[in-house]
Design brief:
This is Methionine ABC transporter ATP-binding protein. With about 350 residues, the protein is α/β, with parallel strands linked by helices. Helices cover about 40% and strands about 30% of the residues. The chain binds adenosine-5'-triphosphate (ATP).
Length: about 350
């Protein structure tokens, strides 16, 4: 388990003191994939450096597997850090070494004998899907393959915690998805805890169980990914959720508001099993309303699907209100849209 208790980190700068992490408390369970999301400067990298002991907090405690990383020194810190490994945005590979030699590097440093090392490297190459590329140099690999080497190297010494620092930010969308799938399969096969930092909600939606949203050093919201998508609280979280779900939505809504001025434009939020219910048919049958579908999408998350549907409801005020109430009674949240934002 990873636990942060009232952790703050201040840096001294030419203009005085800067608070990069501001009184953060978090608990990350074993075997969890936990995402930390925030825009540039939110404090995510500082958080990662606090988690691997590269930085000491100004106040508060960072516990990883029951070891207080913020207080440990010397051998105790080295032992604790042995269980924590990192994957980097720009891979950080050794360019003069082959794939196999890059992966072997942390094993050499740990003093693993040659035979055992070669056996372990073979296993890792198979685990990350790089069979046959053992002798290739990083310059001969695609971005996705380089990150597979980075992941294999990070797993070499059997860590219990894998920290991923924007591990897919340098990759195209398809390669990003393949690397995210690899992280999920590693989490499931090896049972390790993954903490990833990102500025992309897509990454959180696709693989994380829980998420913490950071802004100006503070965690402004945290929770189960599906719940956060369904019911974001902080304005910044709403922006991230919109970013991950709204492709084409703004244009459709703007057009609809312009073209059809009758009735009401309603955004409906579905979650889990509700995404499979025929509620739209039901409200047309039960109430004297017409339903015009403007925009819809369903986004899979690690804990179930989440969907939004924008519809234009026309009919008498009473029927429209009754139809909305009927949906609310079914547990489907709704929001009246009056402008594009
Ligand atoms: N060593 C340092 N000395 C002084 N200020 C720092 C240091 N490291 C980070 N900061 C400042 O702390 C704040 C948080 O930075 P941090 O790198 O943790 O954010 P981030 O969310 O990772 O952003 P980015 O994705 O741009 O790296 C920023 O204002 C940054 O300038």
């Amino acid at each position: 388990m990873i636990q942060l208790d009232n952790v703050s980190k201040q840096y001294k700068t030419a203009n005085g003191s800067l608070t990069a992490v501001d009184n953060v408390s978090l608990t990350i369970q074993d075997r969890e994939i936990f995402g930390i999301i925030g825009y540039s400067g939110a404090g995510k990298s500082t958080m990662i450096r606090l988690l691997n002991g590269l930085e000491k907090p100004t106040s508060g405690d960072v516990l990883v597997n029951d070891v207080n990383i913020s207080k440990a020194r010397g051998n105790a810190l080295r032992n604790a850090r042995h269980h924590i490994s990192m994957v980097f945005q720009h891979f950080n590979l050794l360019w003069s070494r082959t794939v196999a030699e890059n992966i072997a590097f942390p094993l050499e440093i740990a003093g693993v004998k040659k035979d055992a090392r070669e056996k372990r490297v073979k296993e890792l190459i198979a685990l990350v899907g790089l069979e046959g590329r053992d002798d290739a140099y990083p310059s001969q690999l695609s971005g996705g393959q380089k990150q597979r080497v980075g992941i294999a190297r990070a797993l070499a010494n059997n860590p219990t915690v894998l920290l991923c620092d924007e591990a897919t930010s340098a990759l195209d969308p398809e390669t990003t998805d393949a690397i995210l799938d690899l992280l999920v399969s590693i989490n499931e096969k090896l049972g390790l805890t993954i903490v990833l930092i990102t500025h992309e909600m897509h990454v959180i939606r696709k693989i994380c169980h829980r998420v913490a949203v950071m802004e100006k050093g503070k965690v402004v919201e945290q929770g189960n990914v599906l719940e956060v998508f369904q019911n974001p609280q902080a304005p910044i979280t709403k922006r991230f959720v919109t970013q991950a779900t709204s492709t084409g939505q703004k244009e459709s809504v703007a057009q609809m508001l312009e073209d059809y001025r009758e009735g009401q434009l309603i955004k409906l939020f579905f979650v889990g099993d509700q995404t499979e219910q025929p509620v739209i048919t039901e409200i047309i049958r039960k109430f004297a309303v017409d339903v015009n579908i403007v925009h819809g999408n369903i986004s899979p998350t690690k804990s179930g699907p989440y969907g939004t549907l924008i519809v234009q409801l026309t009919g008498s005020d009473a029927d429209v209100a009754a139809a909305i109430q009927y949906l609310e009674n079914k547990g489907i949240k709704s929001e009246v849209i009056s402008d594009v934002d």
